[in-house]
Amino acid sequence: VIYRIKRKGGGRQTLLASQNEGVEGLSLDWVSQNLYYIDSRKGTLNVLNVDKPEYRKVLLKDLNRPRAIVVHPNKGYVFFSEWDRPANISRAYLDGSHVMVFRNVLLGWPNGLSIDYQTDRIYWCDALLDH
């Protein structure tokens, strides 16, 4: 289930209510008001518009144990991690096209993706390697 509330609290609204979803991570594109999320049960990367949450779309499927996600709206990218062996961090366009896997990066279970928008660096923590 995905909810939202106002910054000052109150006004809780359900954006996604499904017993079949396994939401692991989400990231908001503040430019388009699209909310990107990972469904670990289905192995998908999905998007919904926060103003029209009934409009949902699967962007990528058949992902291997997807976990974390972060968007870079100004560059038009979504980054996500997968825990399968070998674990990886990948980048795609916001429409799910042009997937690029970052190679030669030692990863165990990449979690908690974050972006420094000033320097264009990606940060993550690793639940297996304690990095």
TrEMBL record:
The keyword Disulfide bond does not apply. GO terms for molecular function: Wnt receptor activity; Wnt-protein binding. GO terms for biological process: canonical Wnt signaling pathway. Keywords: EGF-like domain, Lipoprotein, Receptor. It comes from the Eukaryota. InterPro entries: 6-blade_b-propeller_TolB-like, Cueball_EGF_LRP_Nidogen, LDLR_classB_rpt. One of its GO terms (cellular component) is plasma membrane. This is Low-density lipoprotein receptor-related protein 2-like.
